[in-house]
Amino acid sequence: MNFMKRLTASLLCVAMLAGTVACSSSDNTWAAKTNEKTIPIGVYIYYEYLAYQTASSKIEDSTKPVLEQKVENTDATEWIKKKALGYTKQLFVIDNKMKELKLSLTEAETKEVASTAAGQWNQYKDTLEGYGISKESFTTATAEMNAKSAKVFEALYGKKGSKAVSDADLKAYFEKSYTDFSYVMVPLYNPTTYAALDDKTQKEYKKFLEDNAAALNKGSTTFDTVATDTQKKMKLDYAPSQTVTTVLNEESGYPAELITLINGMTPGEAKTITLASVNAVLLVVRNDVTKKTATQLSVDSSRSEVLAHMKQKEFEDEMTKLADESKDITVNQKAIDSYPPTKFVQKDNGSSSTAS
Questions:
Q1: Degrees (nearest 5) of the Cα angle 339, 73, 52?
Q2: Helix, strand or coil for residue 181?
Q3: Running DSSP on this structure, what letter comes out for residue 142?
Q4: Which pLDDT score, from 0 to 100, does residue 235 have?
């Protein structure tokens, strides 16, 4: 849509850049606005902080300063600023979609937004306030945005949405993209004192799991039996086993060597692996994911999870495109420029966690 620029005290403040009105202002309290909504500068700062954290995970050399490197073939500073502004502009896009689709947050959802944000704020308050981010800005940028985005996503891709995904397509995606596996993990350290086990004990535990993997492959034992025997042998007060159904890739958070091992296994096969990153040895069984299909897709919460994996990138790309093309957003360039990514360099080593 075309944005009708109104006469202001200074006509020189109007400059068109990539379809966005960039305006220099003496008021640094806001980052961007339309006729209907104004986004506080704290929201932009939070998104810049988030983009800086993301850039830190994408650079090639973690020993060198983030801002002296490139991210996705772009100067890190420019990449961070572009991401932050893009996230900020998407707030307007999501609000527009809410109106277009006649959606609104219910009273219960609004309370959940406040509760979620309050819990996260308590954890990150000291760091974020130090950057000039208020609780209100944090709430807008995180819990509120997430709740609205989820509502729009469901209205588009859910069972009654304009882009609804059929059960057949969802089933095909789940069985192709998801992996189901179980594992028993034995720490190579004392779980009470965290002291490393001696070599003899480590070898004993590794052989124990190797023998059980062989028995599983022969069909002479069951995974549940192995898990129970492991808990007894280790005298653990917790179950050392877990079953996981997920999209197993580098974004899943599992060690690369474990992902490689599982991807190379066939359903029903058992193997062991020692992971230095967690100082533990694992017995892993790859399960037949098709046996989980019916359960996964019949429960609303797990069906929504699969749907999100399937369509989230498409959704995000569309929202980004709409934000980039929007012509009715006024950007307070002076305010944005007063908060460069260098703001986060001094505290780079002091914030190992990211509030999101």
A1: 30
A2: strand
A3: I
A4: 86
